[in-house]
Structure formats: C-alpha cells, structure tokens
Amino acid sequence: MNNESTSPEPVDQPPTSESPGHPGAPTTDLQDAETEGFRRDYHRIRDAIGSVIVGQHRVIDSVLTAMFCGGNVLLEGVPGLGKTELVKSLARVLDLDFRRIQFTPDLMPADIIGTNIMNTDESGRYHFEFRRGPIFTQLLLADEINRASPKTQSALLETMQEGTVTVGGEISTLEQPFFVLATQNPIEQEGTYPLPEAQLDRFMFKVVVGGLDREELNEVVSRTILKQPIELPTVLDGAGILRIRETLDKVVVADPLRDYAVRLVLSTHPGTEGAPDGVRQFVRWGASPRAAQALIRAARVRALGEGRAHVAFEDIAGFATEVLQHRVLLNYDGQAENVDVAQLVSDCVASLEQTS
After folding, report:
1. Could you tell me which of 346, 73, 328 has the C-alpha nearest to residue 205?
2. Which of 66, 282, 337, 345 is the most exposed place for a label (fewest CB within 10 A)?
3. Cis peptide before 177 (omega within 30 of 0)
4. Is 220 within 8 Å of 179 (Cβ atoms)?
5. Among 132, 264, 147, 146, which Cα is nearest to 203's?
6. Do the beta carbons of residue 326 and residue 200 sit within 8 Å?
7. Closest by CA position to 259, among listed 145, 356, 123
8. Is the pLDDT of residue 262 over 90?
9. How far separated are the first and last CA of the chain, in Å rounded?
10. Parallel, antiparallel or unpaired: strands 203-208 and 72-76
C-alpha cells in the first residue's frame, strides 16, 4: 500500500526485516505462502476496483483495510465523487450480499432492522412473525446516514459493534462477514443530524473523499461518453475474508509497537503528558480505547499487504488520520476557530517522533 508516513526511531526498536528464525527476529507462525497470498489478493482487489473508480487510491486502500479487519467505514465527501459506486464495486469483487438504505428524516428503526408482524397459520390462528429488514446482509451501504434522526441512527449501534439484531427480546446473528459503509455530505447541513459520539466511535475509519484533478476528471468524463461497461472479476468471497482475518491474527506486534499505538492515542487527550499544544488548547476529549485497537488492526493489514509478517512503526502511523480524526472532540475554542482535526492528529504523530 502506498501510504506516506515518517516512522519514528525509538531506541529499542525491534528488528523489521529479519526472517523468522533469524537471531533477534520476532517469532511468528505466519507462513510465506499466506503472506504472499494475501498480498496478491489485496492488489488484485485494489486493481479491480481501481478500474472503475478513477483516482482515490488512498480511499480504496482505507476501505479495503477496514474491511479485512472487520471494521465499519464512514465516507465523507461531496456528491458525485463515486462513493456509492465504490461500495457497489466492492460487493461485486468480493461476491458479498449487498443492500442499500437511503437515510431520510422519516426513516424509522423498523425500516432498517425489521419488525414483528401479525400473521395466520394454516389453522387460522394468529401469531407473530419477524420480517427481516435490509440490515440482514453482508455489505450495508447507509447512504447519507446523517439525514436520519438520532433514534433511527441508534438502530445501527448494536449491529455495528456486535453483529447482532435484537427485536422483541429475540437476538438474531448476522451472517459474517458484515460491514457498514456509510456516507455523508460535509457541506449540506440543512435537514441533517450530527452523528452521536457513540456511533462515530463504532466506525473504525472516517475517510474523507477528496476531489479529482484535471487528468482524473477528464478520464471520468471520457468513460461517461464512451459508456463502455467494465466487467469486474470476483477475487474473494465471504469465506475468503474470514480466512484472511485468521491470517491477520498471526502478524507479530512487538511490545514497543503496541506501546507506540497506546501513546499515540493518549496524545490526543489534552490532559496527558506529551499532548501537543494544539491538543491542549482545542481538544475537549481524545480518542477512545477502540482507537488503539483499530491502529493495531489496520497496521497488521498494511504490513501484510507489503509482504511483512510483523508490524513496523510506519504501519501504526500509516492510518492514524483515518482512525483518530472522528474520535477527537473539539472544545468551544476549537469549534469556533474551525480547527482541522486531521492536522491535530498529524501533530500527535510528529510529537511522538520527536520524543521517541
């Protein structure tokens, strides 16, 4: 993956290039065939999606990384950048059951998770029957999620964290793998509801989808004029994704790397030692423990995608912005001055590099 980051140079940095069995190398039972198989499949999936989505390489990498970890993604960008097409392409390449929910102010929780309805059996006796909602899928696109009321948004909380749905005291387990990819428009705020912090924390990544440059936009227009359909190959299926998760568990995370992820999360809290000046001045509350877990999980995918069976420092910092920016809450001064949270995250990474 092509993620640009500067890795710190700690005094007690573990080896990062020795093969297993070499003196001083990390211990791992991850086989070379598994590492190469993941790297090959990852690049095939990325290339296939890239044949449909022009540019947005960072966005594709982020979505694939979160998906392999089993995490949910919040895509933020103005209309027309291909967010919905990205999700559809992902479903085709991975052969996943796909459903889309268009969030609106009048959407109700039962429209998402389903409801019990009265029905009759052959003898004419009445009984309740659960009618499943669109959430019973593998890949759920929650389009313009911030247009629904907080009551409706809360219907996703259990599912995003536990992969289950509870209706009338009955718990139903969703088929794995299961992912929620939500979209929201950052510039149109009329008729929208801010996502509650508890729901934001359940998104592993928040990915900002940027605009296209001149060359990329010309390519999009050319494809539109030519109207040439692109046949996407099926590279993996749900069972293959679950096998990859087992492979990721074997990627070695040495103690200094784990501690680095913890220190990076703690540096987003204004009251902790080592927090940058911007965090102390503009942040009300920092990232949650889920952020540290997400940093490690994403780092394992990044390392394996580059053919390594162990995590390096640049892997931890590689997706720091996507993991942390939606979990850092600004105080009144930060909101009034429209402080860029992504820049605060970069400051946190830089501060650790200086003190390592």
Report:
1. 73
2. 337
3. yes
4. no
5. 146
6. yes
7. 356
8. yes
9. 25
10. parallel
CATH number of 32-249: 3.40.50.300
Q: What is the DSSP string of 222-285?
A: HHHHHT---PPP----HHHHHHHHHHHTTSB--HHHHHHHHHHHHTTSTTSTT--HHHHHHEEE
- Tell me what pLDDT residue 329 has: 92
d(CA 109, CA 47): 37
Model confidence, pTM: 0.82
Q: Residue 93 is which amino acid?
A: V
What pLDDT, in 10s, does the model give residues 84-136?
888 888 888 998 889 999 998 888 888 888 877 777 777 777 777 778 888 89
Q: Are 140 and 179 in contact (CB under 8 A)?
A: yes
pLDDT, average across residues 46-72:
88
DSSP SS3 for 109 = helix
- What region, left, alpha or beta, does residue 345 occupy, with left being phi > 0 and alpha being psi -120 to 50 degrees? alpha
CA atoms within 13 A on the CB side of 191: 9
Region 264-276: what's the mean pLDDT? 90
Question: pLDDT tens, 220-249?
Answer: 788 777 776 777 888 888 888 998 888 888
Given the candidates 3.40.50.980, 1.10.1660.10, 3.40.50.300, 1.10.8.80, the CATH classification of the domain at 1-30+250-356 is 1.10.8.80
